Amino acid sequence: MKTQPPAIGARGGGIAGHPPARLKAEKPMSYKWIGLLLALAGAAWSQQPTPKQQRDLRLEKEQPGAGSGQISGVSIPRSYALVVGISGYENLPQRSLQFAERDAQAIYSILISPEGGNFRAENVHRLIGAQATLAALRREIEQWLPGAAKPEDRVLIYFAGHGFVFNGKAYLAPFDLDPNNIAGTGYPMETLGQVIGGKINARYKVLLTDACHSGAITPANSQAVNRSLLDLHSSLFSLTASRDREASFESADWGGGHGIFTYYVVKGLEGEADQNADGIVTADELAEYVHRNVREATNARQNPTSERGSFDPNMPLAYIPKTFARRAPAAQTSDFGALVLEANMDGVEVFVDGKSSGVVNKAAPLKLQGLRPGPHTIQGVKMGYEPDGPREEMVYPGQETTVSIKIVYVRRRNKKASDLLDRGLEYYNKGYAENYRKAAEFFEKALAEDPKFSQAAMYLGRSYNALYEDDKAQKAFRRALEIDPDSIEARISFGGMLLDIGDFDEAIRQLNTVVQREPKQALGLSLLAQAYRMKDMYPQSIESARKAIRLLPENPEAHFFLADSLRLSGSYVEAEKEYREYLRLSDFQSKLAGKLNYYVLGFLAGAGKKKRAAQQDIWKDLQSLAYFGLGDCERLLSHPDPAIENYTRALAYDKDDPKVHWALGLAYTKKAELTGNLDSLPQARQHFAAMLQINDQLAEAEQAKKYIARIDALLKSRQ
């Protein structure tokens, strides 16, 4: 039994894209047929990018759970969450926190996990660090959540940062809090209660807060903050990090660096709080688990608190269908233990019960507390070495168990398997379907020679993905990750393949794991930008793309995804700049071309453009999409001539692209509207007709028919 809490460092005190606005014509019409032409023009070519989801209808698969659906007969409510984490404050340099932002990222990961909260990624908004301004908090809490949530939905708000009291009123501290004007720059707890109780119309409401930090506010103020959090509204399940007059703590001893409260919230949502082993973590179960473990870990110095109101104690918070069946219900007393994981090398990733639990370094053991007693499967992995495990280690109630992970044997490759891999790569790097097919044969043979050859499995997945054999590709990628769970390259490749098949939620989960492990992974950030872009999560896409560009400015695809998300957010001028930068960097006539021939996955997800198994064709399609985006920007800026020029260049890559014909019809009509000259209408008609001839099942087909009829009538009346 532990008799003292671990070394504790006091935790110091205390967006969806919007449619573009209507664009006005540059000059008024004065001809007698102005009314008919304006009726023809309508809103369609004046207001929206074409199309919102690149150039073809995107079919997004409904995944089991993922914020709506069922798991093993359990109905999962549609769910929305706001996750806020602030470590450093603009005007509070002396009151920085260590792990608040890391805590917020951990909460985000467990909420979007299928074995966790089962929230859809686009329904979880994050405000991290400088993003968490007062204006942003107001927008998300007072506008987005009330506007999104419906009566049967679930809403969760998580806040890690500072809390303050001024004139007897409690406030959450946004990033830009002014300590000299707390009432004017803090977010009032009173307002939070009013919004949650009266404006957010949801069946389940959850507030998780870690806002009372020692060193920032007095014990009396801590009491006021906690009292305010617990008294917000009776229909709300509110779980606070500490009780009256207590502080909350953070330490590197919890999972490699977390606030104690959040560490146990995440562990609980991962399934450790599932008291009756039914696969569902309820509000009561989470509250009991977090309270008991935090209290014990801090020697009763911190006591998370929730108070029963009118909320449902069986409110479902997490779903763990794959793990609950093998677990027995926990005992009622002293029922949790801890593992202290040591390693003989740096950078060893540890998996507990199949889930990545952190990285162990030689001089920095990893402590995992709050684990159920009984056997747990442990595996330590490091690229290039044989793993240690998986093996079972016992967790004993109320005790710490030290587990030594020894990474000893360098993974040796069968020479024949390595030669087969090299032969496969010769074909793979040539591109085109016949070469990918031959490459796959060699990779299969390499795996037969060495079943633990993760690189062969990864390239096999890439080859099958290029050949559109998705089931085989997914199987190969999963095999590569089973062999080497810490392979960043394989996880990126798998994430890209998931983008290709339209599984955007799982792609976000895989790529989020990549950037959590390696925050400076430029390709992972670039693909994550594309995943967010396909979920209409334009602010997140823009943020990820910009991070990727800062790390690798010559990464052309990051510029492309940034441009697309800027365009779809209505930032046309900035989007044009990024499209042009993409085209400059991807110019295959330049000396840079050789540097760009790395593996491309996911770049055409949902675009309806990836038709041939050839890298050269993929690059051509991307250039076509870039010119298409430039055309859209110019058209929506009421510049029809450069729009027509760029659309025409896009059409040169694929003369049978119906969406380009549609866009050209809009641009030629826009030209007639702005100039008052009907000479461009025959070209508009020609492209509308071409679109219908290529594909008359598109959503725009009926509108195109109406435009053709109106153009015909207009031209006839002019004769």
Notes on the protein architecture:
This protein is α/β, with parallel strands linked by helices and 719 residues long. Among the domains are: 34-58 and 636-718, Serine Threonine Protein Phosphatase 5, Tetratricopeptide repeat; 77-246 and 256-326, Rossmann fold; 337-405, Carboxypeptidase-like, regulatory domain (Immunoglobulin-like). Helix content is 45%, strand content 15%. The protein contains 24 helices and 22 strands. Strands 5-4-6-10-11 form a 5-stranded parallel sheet, sandwiched between helices. Strand 2 and strand 3 (74-76) form a beta hairpin. Helix 16 (522-534) runs parallel beside helix 18 (556-568), helix 18 runs antiparallel to helix 19 (572-585) and helix 23 packs antiparallel against helix 24 (701-718). The longest helix is centred in the last third of the chain and has 22 residues, at 615-636. The chain is globular. The N and C termini lie far apart (96 Å). Residues 1-47, 51-70, 213-226, 228-234 and 589-614 have low confidence and may be disordered.
